[in-house]
Amino acid sequence: MGRITAPFGPQHPVLPEPLHLNITYEDEKVVDLSPAIGYVHRGLEKLAETKEYPQNVFLVERVCGICSFMHAMTYSMGIEELMGIKIPPRAKYLRVFYSEISRIHSHLLWLGLFADAFGFENLFMQYWAAREKIVDLMELTGGHRVILSSCAIGGIRRDLSEEQIKIAETTLMHVKHELERINPIIMKDYTVKKRTVGKGILTKDDAIKYGAVGPVLRASGVAQDIRQLGYAAYGDLGFEPIVETDCDSYARGVVRVKESYQSIELALEALYRLPEGEAAVKVKGNPDGETLMRVEQPRGEVLYYIKANGSKNLERLRIRTPTFAHVPGLLKMLPGCNMADVPVIVLSIDPCISCTER
Amino acid sequence: MSINKIISTPEEMLNVIKNCYEGGYRMVTATCIDEGEVFRLIYNFDKDLTMINLEVTTPREKAIPSISDIYVCAFLVENEMQELFGLKINNIALDLGGKMYMAGGVKKAPMAREIKPAVKGDE
User: Fold this and answer.
1) Whole-angstrom Cα distance, residue A97 to residue B49?
2) Residue B107's CB: how many other CB atoms inside 10 A?
3) Which secondary structure element, helix H or strand E, spans residue A153, and what is its range?
4) Region B84-106 average pLDDT
5) CATH code at B50?
């Protein structure tokens, strides 16, 4: 049996993200691989040291288009902790609302791409049509479709009107009904299962050993979700992580499908229980000290380390994004699989190389 | 943020991290902070949402051992620290040779502070 080494990416039909894997095959089986990135590194951590700390809210939003709100929120939470700022209850609930519609947006985008990866283009279009409603909702409430700039240090920059809340509730119910129609296809279809069940196994022990996070970790049977820490208003809303135990690409899809429903419920609950009052407090002074802040993004845990010295500029901002934690897991998931399964398995981690490289 | 343990030697670092691994902790990440004469490293581990933060300080020119033979996933962040800060790390499981972000290799660590050599008469 001959061995060949062939590149997967950085430009690949199934993957819009510039991830490059040098894969060694023995016939059609993967036997070894080495990841390589570096196509979209922007030096954002270094840039953050040159900006004033309030400007960094807009900078970190650009780490990732899909998780932009949650990057801004994690950074803001870190600065708020350093400065001893208590945000109003209304801002906490609005942060949950924006976080959850971001999660729905991300999961539906991924489910569509996942369907496309195994050649189910009609399903891809169905998911993206549903996602479009969420993106419209983002535009209605935040003023933008992707980079919302709704989060600010001290709360939320854009409060919701009664009319916007009603439209948001109607939209979320509509998307829920759409998903009830589409989701059974991905969860029960023979072809979908044939392409995903048993592919890219990452056992519970390996998930911990390889540092997996988010839906990948939970699909390997680990009941861990950073929202359980109760940040923003999650502590009041009651929340249990979605867990699957099959440890394969199918299980990762199922986790995201179920989390989409859960996010709709959480977003609606946040709107129903939205307290009256201000959505932000004024911020004065500069941060001092160091802190770690974690938030559950759609792809998993993000960690911010912030070090400030009492001036307007930070000494250090470090961001560990979920995909950065997922890339090593591919070293375990891919060896032994067939060449044709590589795109599906790679996509099952929901890679975002823009986040990874910052 | 609280540092749970300050580690003074590379041997102690490996032992403590091995204990984390055997205790079922997930490695979250490591962070390098350039403090002039030394690099300060913070390693984060998590178990059931409880974090352990370990701190190691190392002189700029001194190499530290890789922890990637304990936590394989550490290879990526170790390559990043090596490339962006010029931190020397021995025996990384998958050493990308300074070409993780910069295909042509690193000429100068972009995140490291510039240490100006002392000029005669400054003191």
Assistant:
1) 23
2) 8
3) none
4) 80
5) 3.30.460.80
**Closest residue to B31, CB basis, from A36, A228, A305:** A305
Six-digit token string for A83: 């400065």
Q: What residues make up the domain containing B76?
A: 5-90
Please report the pLDDT score of residue B1 as a whole number. Answer: 62
Cross-chain residue pair B76–A290, CB shorter than 8 Å: no
Please compute the mean of the pLDDT values over residues A138-159 and round it to a whole number.
87
Q: Which CATH superfamily is domain A3-357 in?
A: Cytochrome-c3 Hydrogenase, chain B (1.10.645.10)
Give the pLDDT score at B2.
65
Residues 37-56 of B with CB under 8 A from A: 42, 44, 48-49, 51, 53
How many other C-beta atoms can be found within 10 angstroms of the C-beta atom of residue A13?
8
Query: What percentage of chain B has pLDDT greater than the value 70?
Result: 85
Q: Where are the domains of chain A?
A: 3-357
Residue A21's Cβ-side half-sphere holds a number of Cα atoms within 13 Å equal to 26
Average pLDDT (A78-106) is: 94
Domain assignment of residue B95, yes or no: no
Does residue A252 register a pLDDT over 80? Answer: yes
The domain tally of chain B equals 1
Name the pTM for this structure: 0.91
Contact A313, A50 (CB under 8 A): yes
Amino acid at B70: I
Interface ipTM: 0.87
